[in-house]
Amino acid sequence: MRIAIVFYVAIIVLLIAAQWKIYTKAGKPGWACIVPIYNIIVLLEIVGKPLWWIILLLIPGVNIVFAIWMINLLSKSFGKTEGFTIGLLLLSFIFYPILGFGSASYEGPAGAAK
Question: How is the chain split among helix, strand and coil, in percent rounded to 5?
């Protein structure tokens, strides 16, 4: 039981560190990833969407669609494809560290620099 708890906490710490690194790669403060609500605001700035999307993220059912869309825009912001988005959704404990600690660089909101 204790091993499972330690493993769980280690994955959470890894994901927070990866998200911290993603925010800093995008030129935002890394600590913003651990502040509730504000982390969504900063993420919306990173992917280039308006702040009123927060309202859409509060509507049951609609929030799932817009959260997936936001994750897709995040992967595009770092030059990745839809396949990487699927990885972020299904194997987040692997793909977020790849995005944060890997060689991917921020290309602007949803890859606008292309």
Answer: 70, 0, 30
